[in-house]
Structure formats: structure tokens, C-alpha cells
Amino acid sequence: MPHINAAAALQIGMLLSALPAQYLISRWYGTNSAQRIQITERLIIASWSRFTKSYLSLDAWADRLKLWLSETRTCLNVGLLILHFRNWYNGEKETKIGDSEAETHSYFAESTHIRSPRPEYIQFGVGQVVVHKALGYSGVIVGWDIKAKAPEEWLQHKYPPAKQDLKETPHYRILINKVNGFGKSTAYVPEEEITITVGLEVHHPDLKAYFSGYDGSKYIMQPWLKKIYPHD
């Protein structure tokens, strides 16, 4: 049976307290004992009828139950709505974080997107040893992009207005040979700034993560790297 709330309890109390009050009032309206008794009986019967219709009727309790279920369902729906919103909001935040991380790893030829087919205008390949034309350091290519992919701030610093065209040319990620003492471990450079060399081994702490060996002309890619650059 549904719980009787404060309003229902108040109504019951008022009905019960009304009986003696109605009896006292009836005394002032009756001219004799018989009339007072008759009026009191009618008042008692009317009060009892109202009470039974409100609290002893199955229909009345059914209506209260429907109302209670409706209110409960409304609260439940509101709770579910809040939960769905919270999950959507958290999911959206997670997606944004994930997209941000994915975008970060797509810079500087670090994307794991498979480079196939390989464009014909890409002159150099992963595993080849190169020398920087202007700065003189050597290194090995570990990745390439068909054009510069880097944060806009980096591109603006790297390429002033006079060199804007270089952003649209192939770029290579290089592990710099530590014997050069260059002060940097990696570089990301446009194609025109490097040239190929053979017979030169590179020393770098991350070399084995990318390559399994050196055949005298180029480094042999690890299987995971070969999947990304299948035609190099």
C-alpha cells in the first residue's frame, strides 16, 4: 500500500475531529432531542461516506498509486536524463582529449597512417642515412610526410614569409647521429635540406626501436615500422 503523506494524514485527522464538532453544532440547530439526533446521524453518515470514498475505496487507492507511480517515474526519468547528460559530457571530454592526443602524434612524421601508395615525388625513404647540407650533421630517416605537418606556431617560426613554399614540400623525421654532438636528438626537415650518403652508421639511443640492423647502405626497418612504410 502506498505511503500516506502529510496531506493525507491531515485530512484523516480533520475528518475524525469533525465528528464531535458536528455533534455539538447540531445541538444548536435542533429544536428538540429527536431533531438533534436526526441531524447528527445525517452528519455522521455524510462524514463516514466521505471518509470511505477517500480512504476505504479501492478506486481511490488505485488513483493514489497511479499518482505515486507517475511521480516516481518522473523522478526516475529526471535521474536518467541527468545520468545520460553526465555520461555524454564525460564522453565528449574523453573524445576531445583523445582527438587532441591523436592530433599531437600526427605531427613531425609520427603518424601511424600507412603510407601507401607511396608518391613518386618522395625522393628518400625510411632507413636511409642522410646529411644536412647546411648544418653538416648526419642521421637516419625514421618517417616522412608529403608536406609539413606540425603545429602552426612551429611552422610560422620555421618558415617566414620568404620560405612559405617549403611547407608544401616533403618533410622527413631524422634521428641525429650523436657523434656529431649537434645537441638535438631528432630533426624535422624539408627534402631540399638533406642529401643521401652510404656506408655511414648512425649512433642513437632509439635506433633499435626503429631498426633491426644495417646492411651497409640503409637500415632495416622493424616489422611495425615496415607496416607503416611498406614501399620504402
UniProtKB/TrEMBL annotation:
It holds the Pfam family YccV-like. Residues 121-222 form the Hemimethylated DNA-binding domain. Residues 1-21 form the signal peptide. The keyword Signal applies. This is FBX21 protein. PANTHER family: HEMIMETHYLATED DNA-BINDING DOMAIN-CONTAINING PROTEIN. One of its GO terms (molecular function) is DNA binding.
